[in-house]
Specification:
By secondary structure, this protein is mainly alpha-helical. It has six helices and no strands. Helix content is 77%, strand content 0%. Helix 1 packs antiparallel against helix 2, helix 1 runs parallel beside helix 6 and helix 4 crosses helix 6.
Length: 141
């Protein structure tokens, strides 16, 4: 459930050291997903609280404006697929936590974001599982 220890980081360890691979990979996927609805729900109250101060209000305005302006057309056209791919790419700084933040920043629908992020987690877990079984070292593993 930690941002830098998501399912894709635990799967190589699961495959290498356990005989119950499938149930543990499913558990890793579910544990990776647990914080997603919490992140999506709590970012709004945190943003509102931070906006009470001029500095944070200004900074958040800049972040939201820059992010939305720079990617508005591609996000509107590809929002679901883009979110799935972003979460599915098994590289540092991508994944469920940053996917949740991206979904919030772009103002994407809560339920659709949950589904897209879950699909992305599953794809990332599949990619990492296949790479691990094939003996391909990824993520510095």
């Amino acid at each position: 459930m930690l941002p830098f220890w998501e399912a894709r980081y635990t799967i190589p360890i699961i495959i290498k050291y356990n005989e119950y691979v499938i149930p543990l990979i499913i558990l890793a996927i579910l544990a990776n997903f647990i914080p997603v609805p919490l992140i999506l729900k709590f970012l709004n109250p945190v943003e509102k609280w931070l906006r009470k101060w001029k500095f944070w209000n200004h900074l958040l305005d800049k972040i939201f404006e820059h992010t939305r302006k720079k990617t508005k057309k591609s996000i509107e056209k590809w929002e679901s697929l883009a979110l799935i791919i972003f979460v599915a790419i098994p590289l540092p700084v991508t994944g469920a936590w940053t996917g949740s933040l991206a979904a919030y920043l772009f103002g994407l629908d809560f339920k659709k974001s949950l589904l897209c992020i879950f699909i992305g987690i599953c794809i990332a877990a599949f990619i990492v599982s296949i790479a691990t079984i094939a003996g391909i070292k990824i993520l510095g593993g």
